[in-house]
């Protein structure tokens, strides 16, 4: 069956279910059931899309039956199809985790619709082939995230959401300004067409300026050095399931946008633009490492690990060779999965101990052995110990760095892995080893809740393990994705065919 | 002390309908002249806000017994439904259709599915704007 609208299904289905949920504000059970059904259907659609893209190449549809540069084109290449599938998969597990952890009060106030609207925005931003449409989908996901960050109305959430909204409003305004500049130069908004037009004028100075402006815009969203300042405070405020969604998905949209623009638009003056990206990505890694070691707070340690990962992925992108880009794609998906798993696991640790301060914990392995071992697997996966999922991605990125004569950067990357390992193992040692801290007895928690929290966490960890062990089977998909990034003409031909 | 605002309330009763009709006019004229779902919706909201100023929140909720969150939801469904109808004909999403019809009262009329999408926008704008005003105004 030939379905030309197939690539829109992962966007439309969550959108549709979010609307339906608006009618059932108070009926929490109906909301839960519908959300799970909606996400399951989206997951099926996205896997179907993935198979289709693998079999038939890049899928495009230009909305409203208009010819390509004039209508809004939606483009699903392997890179975006993989990201869309990962997004829905993670959301599915986080929603299961939410049932026990988010609390009925939040569920009754548009929690699930907000998640589904956010997924709509994220999938849309991954799929769109139009730069202004990307802005619109950014706003869709941001406005839903504003609700999620403030939902509950705790004092800390109110304070941090003001910062979060302020920063994002400013970066959105910059995004519009950047699109306006770009439009005044090339006269088109279709991303494939922009790429053609920039190649025609051979990237004069003004386009390089724009490249930096786009890096600033997406850098604020994706938290690169020195624009990450808002992230640690804001992400620590909302409850764990929301933090998991933010940490696993939101910054990655910024990273995706940088990757897309820096492999499709700004490829004619790599000496300047990509060098700039390279330096910033290394500084991002360093800043993240410092933060990850500095804290004794579970949430902050993992939050700073997000920043490190953003730096690692962008370092891969900045190489612009096969290994670097393959590594970046592989590592991006790995990082989404592993961050979701880690946040969910530390959420359980916080639930069990009643605190997020490492100094007040100890001896959990005696009472919660499964939690401890799954946390250890996830921690090793994050640090990149073979055969777990973090290994191949980082290996390819480091290889790409050496091939592109950025030996120094590659060494920084390898050292950062040690820091990452140290930061997450510290959690393991403090929380699970040693005797139970006598000053801080464990609060009374329900075994049933604990088990229901563990189920999605265990499944997520198993997915990351499968992602690492199954590298051999996944590599064709990853290399399809990086081929499009390395050679923009594949993308352009798919969109502007005939 | 209770103020007597009989002049305001009487004027409102007349002016409300003028504004409301104008908003409907703006809404329907959107395809050929400036206007459309967004301004139409805002004008309708403006008319309702005038009612809110002249009377109080409770009275208005009795006159217009809608849950405006639901109105927003219906509007969204209408907009998405119009765009998604194309899926069933296997043409690209958002492909609109139009044709000329001879209607009993209006005679020769061109009907376009963009109209349905615009009605969705109209309902979303009215629903969300009134929700904002009601929840801020009803907050003690």
From TrEMBL, chain A:
Annotated NADH:quinone oxidoreductase/Mrp antiporter transmembrane domain residues: 129-417
Swiss-Prot/TrEMBL keywords: Antiport, Cell membrane, Membrane, Transmembrane, Transmembrane helix, Transport
GO MF annotation terms: antiporter activity; NADH dehydrogenase (ubiquinone) activity
Sequence similarity: Belongs to the CPA3 antiporters (TC 2.A.63) subunit D family.
Keyword Transport: yes
Pfam family, one: Proton_antipo_M
Nucleotide-binding recorded as keyword: no
Highest taxon, organism lineage: Bacteria
Annotated GO CC locations: plasma membrane
Biological process according to GO: ATP synthesis coupled electron transport
Protein name: Multisubunit sodium/proton antiporter, MrpD subunit (TC 2.A.63.1)
Bilayer disposition of the protein: Multi-pass membrane protein
InterPro entries, alphabetized: CPA3_Na-H_Antiporter_D, NADH_UbQ_OxRdtase, ND/Mrp_TM
Compartment(s): Cell membrane; Membrane
Membrane-traversing stretches: 6-24, 33-51, 71-97, 109-126, 132-152, 164-186, 206-230, 242-263, 275-295, 302-322, 328-352, 373-397, 409-433, 453-470
Automatic annotation (TrEMBL), chain B:
UniProt GO cellular component terms: plasma membrane
Domain Na+/H+ antiporter MnhB subunit-related protein: 7-130
Pfam family, one: MnhB
Segment forming the signal sequence: none
Keywords annotated in UniProt: Cell membrane, Membrane, Transmembrane, Transmembrane helix
Membrane-protein topology: Multi-pass membrane protein
Transmembrane segments: 12-32, 38-55, 67-91, 111-133
Top-rank taxon, per record: Bacteria
Subcellular location: Cell membrane
Entry's family note: Belongs to the CPA3 antiporters (TC 2.A.63) subunit B family.
Protein name per UniProt: Multicomponent Na+:H+ antiporter subunit B
């Amino acid at each position: 069956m030939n379905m030309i609208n197939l690539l829109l299904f992962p966007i439309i289905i969550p959108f549709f279910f979010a609307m339906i949920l608006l009618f059932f504000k108070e009926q929490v059970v109906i909301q839960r059931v519908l959300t799970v059904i909606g996400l399951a259907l989206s997951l099926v659609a996205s896997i179907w899309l993935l198979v289709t893209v693998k079999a038939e190449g890049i899928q495009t549809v230009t909305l409203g039956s208009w010819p390509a540069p004039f209508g809004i084109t939606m483009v699903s290449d392997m890179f975006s199809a993989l990201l869309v599938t990962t997004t829905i998969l993670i959301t599915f597990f986080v929603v299961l985790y939410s049932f026990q952890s988010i609390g009925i009060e939040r569920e009754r106030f548009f929690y699930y619709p907000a998640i589904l609207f956010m997924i709509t925005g994220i999938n849309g931003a991954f799929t769109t082939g139009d730069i202004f449409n990307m802005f619109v989908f950014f706003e869709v996901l941001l406005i839903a995230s504003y609700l999620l960050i403030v939902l509950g109305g705790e004092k800390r959430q109110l304070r941090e959401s003001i910062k979060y909204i302020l920063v994002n409003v400013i970066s959105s305004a910059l995004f519009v300004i950047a699109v306006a500049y770009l439009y005044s130069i090339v006269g088109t908004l279709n991303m494939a067409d922009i790429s053609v037009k920039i190649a025609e004028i051979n990237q004069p100075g003004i386009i390089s300026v724009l490249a930096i402006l786009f890096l600033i815009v997406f850098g604020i969203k994706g938290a690169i050095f020195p624009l990450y300042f808002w992230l640690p405070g804001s992400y620590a405020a909302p409850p764990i399931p929301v933090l998991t969604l933010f940490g696993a998905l939101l910054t990655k949209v910024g990273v995706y946008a940088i990757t897309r623009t820096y492999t499709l638009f700004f490829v004619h003056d790599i000496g300047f633009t990509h060098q700039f990206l390279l330096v910033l990505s290394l500084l991002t890694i360093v800043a993240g490492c410092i933060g990850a070691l500095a804290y004794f707070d579970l949430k902050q340690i993992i939050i700073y690990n997000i920043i490190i990962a953003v730096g690692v992925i962008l370092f891969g992108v900045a190489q612009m060779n096969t290994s670097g880009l393959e590594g970046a794609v592989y590592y991006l998906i790995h990082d989404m999965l592993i961050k979701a798993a880690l946040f969910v696991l530390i959420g359980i640790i916080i639930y069990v101990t009643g605190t997020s301060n490492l100094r007040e914990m100890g001896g959990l392995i005696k009472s919660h052995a499964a939690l401890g071992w799954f946390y250890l697997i996830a921690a090793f996966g994050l640090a990149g110990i073979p055969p777990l999922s973090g290994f191949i991605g980082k290996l390819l990125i480091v290889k790409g760095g050496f091939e592109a004569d950025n030996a120094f950067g590659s060494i920084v990357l390898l050292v950062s892995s040690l820091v990452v390992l140290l930061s997450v193992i510290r959690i393991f040692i403090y929380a699970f080893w040693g005797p139970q801290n006598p000053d801080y007895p464990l609060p009374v928690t329900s075994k049933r809740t604990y088990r229901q929290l563990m189920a999605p966490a265990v499944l997520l960890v198993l997915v990351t393990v499968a992602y690492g062990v199954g590298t051999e089977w996944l590599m064709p998909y990853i290399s399809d994705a990086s081929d499009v990034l390395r050679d923009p003409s594949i993308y352009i031909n798919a969109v502007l065919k005939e | 002390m209770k103020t007597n605002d009989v002049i305001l309330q009487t004027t409102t009763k007349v002016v409300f309908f003028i504004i409301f009709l104008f908003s409907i006019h703006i809404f329907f004229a959107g395809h050929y002249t400036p206007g459309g779902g967004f301004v139409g919706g805002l004008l309708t909201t403006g008319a309702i806000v005038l009612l809110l100023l002249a009377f109080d929140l409770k009275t208005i909720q009795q006159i217009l017994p809608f849950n405006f969150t639901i109105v927003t939801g219906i509007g969204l469904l209408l907009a998405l439904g119009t765009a998604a109808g194309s899926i069933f004909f296997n043409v690209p999403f958002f492909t609109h259709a139009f044709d000329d019809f001879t209607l009993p009262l209006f005679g020769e009329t061109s009907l376009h599915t963009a109209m349905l999408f615009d009605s969705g926008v109209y309902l979303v704008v009215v629903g969300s704007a009134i929700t904002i005003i009601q929840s801020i105004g009803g907050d003690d």
